[in-house]
Amino acid sequence: MSAAPPPPDAQALTDEVEFSALRAQGPGGQNVNKVSNAVQLRFDVHGSSLPDDVKQRLLARADQRMNKDGCLVIKAQTARSLEQNKADALARLVAVVAEVWTPPVQRRATRPTYGSRQRRLAGKAIRSDVKASRGKVRE
Fold this sequence. Notes:
Strands 1-2-3 form a 3-stranded antiparallel beta sheet, with helices on one face. The protein has helices spanning 10-14, 31-34, 52-60, 82-101, 114-132, and strands at residues 17-22, 38-44, 71-76. By secondary structure, it is of the alpha+beta class. The protein is 41% helix and 14% strand. The chain has a domain at 10-101: Double Stranded RNA Binding Domain (2-Layer Sandwich).
């Protein structure tokens, strides 16, 4: 059985993303009103070259950045330069793809051991005694 290929890096995903520059929000003085430093990255999951199972896991994520058309939208505006914001957005995209790259491990049902059951019952008995001792005192 061969090992799964590694997740794509930023260079591989660069051809499949669309960048658009826009004005950043928040404080920044006069510069924030003049310069479009923020970057909006759009990644079409359906049209990408990712494997189908990775696409399905990416679309199934509960992520507010995914729109109903299957397009992942990432906005980066932390840096003051456009290039740094592009690199930040691309790194975040690579992190999201790497997160869903490996399939989740299926849980195998197991039974509790005899010792763990005994410890649980002993703890319940102690707790029961504590609660019973809080009642009215009987002579």
